[in-house]
Every structure is written in C-alpha cells, then in structure tokens.
Design goal:
2 copies of one chain form a homodimer. Chain A is of the alpha+beta class and 283 residues long. Chain A is 52% helix and 16% strand. The first copy, chain A, is built from 10 helices and 8 strands. In chain A, the strands form 2 sheets. A 6-stranded antiparallel β-sheet of chain A has the order 5-4-3-8-7-6, with helices on both faces. A two-stranded antiparallel sheet of chain A has the order 1-2. Chain A is elongated, with a radius of gyration of 22 Å. At the A-B interface, helix 1, helix 3, helix 4, helix 5 and helix 10 of A face helix 1, helix 3, helix 4, helix 5 and helix 10 of B. Chain A binds a DNA duplex (30 and 30 nucleotides) through helix 3.
Chain lengths: 283, 283
DNA sequence: CTCCTTTGTTTCATAATACGAAACTAAATT
DNA sequence: AATTTAGTTTCGTATTATGAAACAAAGGAG
C-alpha cells in the first residue's frame, strides 16, 4: 500500500481537472460519477477550479470545461527547458529532410518523456503522441538508444523496475534479448523500434552525446511500416547520425561559448513577465 | 471583495505549482516565504504535489521542481482544440513565406489567448510570447482585428470592462480613437499594432471569418520595427489577406464536408489513450 | 574542530475546514 | 400535470488541514 495523499482534496482537485482535460467538457453528475465524489463535493471542487481560473462553466450548455490556464503554466515550465530551444532547429531540419515526424525525449526514471515534437504536415496520417506524455524505456526506440549508453547495473535496474508487457507481438520481453539488442545499438550508433511498442509503427532513434552526465535525451523518427522498409531505414539512419553529430558539436560549443545568448533571452523573458505582472497588479 | 475560494488549500496547491513553474526550482523556505505559508503547510502541499506526480524533489540538490505532468494535461486540452490543427498548416506556410513568427489566438472575454505559435527560426531575436498566455483585446492587433467584427454594444462592453493602461506611448487610451481605429480596420481588412502593446514591436493581424458565430479567432505576424517599415507592411498585408481567404475557404469546406477525417483522428487518439490506460492498470 | 545558523522533516493538539445528507430549484422527459 | 434528472444551496458534524514546537541534518563562521 502506497501511503495516501497528505492532502485529500488535492487528489480530487487534480482528478477533476484531468478529467475535464480528457473529456473536453462535462456536467456535474458526470464528474461526480466518474470520480466517485459526492454531488456536493464535486460541485465545490468545480467551483474552486472556476474561482482560480482553471475551469469555466459554459454559458449556454451549463457544462464545465477546462480553460487555457494549465496550458499557460505548462509553457512556463517548458520555457525553462533550454535543451529544447537548442535542439529544435536541428530536429526541424531533420523533419524537413525526411518528411517524417520527429520526437525529442528526456529520460525520467524508467520512462522517457516527450518534450518536443516536430510534425510533418505533408502526410495525412499523423502519429499520435503528446508532449509531456511518457513511454517506457525498455520498449521504445528512444528508450533503448539511451539505455545503450548506460552502465550494466543501471540497465539491470531499469529492466527490474519496469513492468515488462508484451504490447505487440514484437515487444522484447526477455532480459537477455534486451541486452543483446543494446549491444547491437552500440555497434550501429542508433536504435530501432520495429513495432515493439505499437503495431504498424516503426522508429529509428538515437541518443544525444551531452557534455555532462550520461544519456539524458534522445530523438527519433517515427512512421508507419508502409513508409519504413529496410531501404528507407538505411537512408534515415544516415540523416539521423548526421544530425546527432551536428547537435553534439552545438552542445559542446554552448557549454564553453556563448552562454550569454541564453542569458539574454532569459532576460528578455523576465522583462516580459515583469510587464505582465504590472498589468495584473494594476487591476 | 470577490468572495473567497470555496476550498482554501486549492489556492495554496495551485499557487505553489505556479510558483515552481516560474521559479524552475525552489527550496522549501523559498516557497514558504513567497506564498506566505507556514513552513509545515508548504511542506505538506509540496508533498501532496509530489505524491500526485506534479512535482519532485531533486535527488542531489534537495530542491523542489515541477515535473512534466501539467504539460501532459495541457496538451490533452490542446488536442481537443480542432481549430488549431485545421489552421496550423496555413500559418506555417505564412511563416515560411514571410520568415516571421506567426501567432494564433482565441477570444476569451476581454482578452485574447494565444493558442498557437509558429516561430521563425532564421531570426536570432525571438518574440516573447507563450501559448496559453493572455493579451488584452483593446491594445493588441489580434484583439482589434476581432473587435472590428463586433456589434457596437459589444465593443462598448469590451472597452468598459478593460483596464485601459498606457502600456507604451502609442497605446490607444481614448474610446473614440479606438472606434475610429476599428472603422479603419474594417475598411482595410486587417489590423495593425504599431508599438501599442510593446515598444519596438509591430504586428499585422487579421480575424478569421468563421462559418458559425462571430470573430472568435485571429492570427498575426509580429516583428521588431526594424523589420517592419511601411513598405514591408504592405507586402505582409497581401500575404495575410491571402491566407485569411484560404483559411475561410477551408473552414467552410470542413463544416459541410469531410468531418469524418476529424472523427477518424479522434478515434485513433482514443485508441491510443486506451492502450495507455491498459498499461497503467497493469501496474 | 566546535558552535551557530539555516533548512528540511516529523509530531501532535486544536481549530478550522471540507464533507455530505437533505432540502430546494429548474429543466427535461413522460 | 406528473415524474425524473441535473444543478445549487444550506448547515450540523466529523474530518482534515493547520501551525507551534521539537527534532534532525547540513552548511558556514570563527
């Protein structure tokens, strides 16, 4: 039993907020039933969210819906993640060169978290992924790419603490197969996800060589198998490795060199925040 | 006096979360002081956020920091906003044609909320804006573009309920000047923001003609004055109006036509969510 | 090295707060 | 007109969040 929430309402507040985010909109009773809350409690929680500006009640339908306030907070958080700003131009170039959607992730425990995504517009069929959502390391291209850079004990730890599930017929569920696969990745320099996580989707992924610390980020190209035969894969592998080199060079330069640029941007941002604050205070 | 929050801790929970989002990371005492909370209360609130996965305590520094969970929620919310998906390709094209950053907003009361942004990469100097953040209608290009489409009584209401501030020497602070300006916009078909909101920044903006309802969305091109002399402005005006027409046509088509496409995508998304749920339940 | 300051964590009695049953209103539905 | 359902308000009560105080642990100063 994992000890309970030190603040009971907290779970209810965020539960309702998440529910609204998923549902798009909901009536009081829907919320009440879905989260198993007393009608009155649901009502109070919703009003609290409204009071704080995280939800609103649609004037015509009377239904409750989320506002964009969480979106604002989310972007304040993302704004601080410098690596995204640094790497994005390269990922964009990669997307343009290949015409496929490119993802960028950061390691967090036994998962990878999507922190950026450059979508190809040309293709009708879009990959379904979301910034901020998670994917296990053991069964994803990006995950394996990062794991390949780690010490053996860390790999063991990841494997042991992951709930190994056969998500598709191709998912690797054997520890030794996994280790052999990582060995393979080390040789090649890039990782593959051959429908191991989602049927019909192939990925080619590769980790970043960062100046400090080991394997915290990776990027990938994902596409339906129909566009990812072995020939195409070889083609993409070349692009991926080239971009990896470019990013590596850039990151090395950033550490030694013009950190001032980053600081300047931070300053501009601070100035902007300041003006916004003034505006609010003036109410 | 605006009645108080029906759930006291709620304000504290979200207050702390927002603080962490802005600060990047913070110690217990920083939080305690900044939000005027008892040390113990701050501690409890932080632990509750950690318990729910919205914050974590850095293993080495011991400092508290936000996780990407809000980011995930934010993107679940944004994923439901169909208009963004529909319009983005056009905005991207506009960005590529002009080389300038393009913004897309939705009206919310007396403000506009940024709901999309296509950044130009080529230019070193980036505009500072954030998806989910707000800007008053009365002093922004996008705001005026939408206001120009409204009935007189609604314009009055917006003006009366806005806190009119002289943000820069160019800000319009007189009701009649404002109305004359809107008249001008109606004639031209697009709006200008000539350093009215932020010194040194000019915008050209224009609202969307949507099949149902009036003036809920607008887009704009923003750039430093140095890149936005009157000649350039005329050039951009042509592009902006052209894109507006393209979007209008597309929106009209979407209503009558292939709504199925949208439904299909929604279906794919639902499938994906389902798989994720299974994964979590399996724990 | 010791003392002192600062920060983070835990405990606990108490006051305040969130809780939910019930009553009530207003729409929909039959 | 009668019945059901959703949403809102009230209020006594039990639970829960609260904060003072004690404690632990990690720097900093002398």
């Amino acid at each position: 039993m994992e000890q309970k929430n030190p603040i009971q309402v907290a779970g209810r507040l965020f539960g309702v907020l998440e529910f609204l985010a998923d549902a798009g909109s909901a009536g009081l009773m829907e919320v009440s039933v879905a989260l198993d809350l007393n009608k009155t409690t649901a009502h109070r929680v919703l009003n609290s969210l409204i009071y704080m500006g995280y939800a609103r009640q649609n004037a015509v339908s009377g239904r409750y819906e989320p506002t964009f306030k969480v979106v604002d907070i989310a972007n304040r958080i993302m704004g601080r993640v410098d690596i995204v700003q640094t790497v994005r131009p390269y990922l964009r170039k990669l997307m343009e060169a290949t015409g496929e959607t490119v993802h960028f992730v950061e390691r967090d425990g036994n998962d990878a978290v999507y922190i950026d995504k450059v979508e190809s517009m040309s293709n009708g069929i879009q990959m379904v992924s979301r910034i901020g959502s998670r994917i296990p390391l053991y069964c994803s291209g990006v995950g394996k790419a990062m794991a390949a850079e780690m010490d053996d004990w860390e790999i063991e730890e990841i494997w042991n603490n992951s709930k190994i599930l056969r998500l598709t017929p191709h998912t690797i569920t054997d520890r030794n197969d996994f280790k052999r696969e990582l060995e393979e990745i080390r040789k090649r320099g890039y990782a593959l996800d051959d429908e191991e996580n989602e049927s019909g989707v192939r990925c080619i992924a590769c980790s970043l060589r960062e100046p400090l610390g080991s394997a915290r980020h990776a990027f990938s190209i994902s596409a339906p198998v129909s566009r990812m035969d072995n020939g195409r894969l070889r083609e993409l592998a070349a692009s991926v490795l080239k971009v990896r080199e470019e990013i590596t060079r850039k990151l090395r330069a950033s550490v030694a060199g013009p950190e001032t640029v980053r600081k300047e941007m931070r300053y501009m941002h601070e100035q902007h925040e300041h003006r916004e604050k003034c505006r609010l205070d003036a109410r």
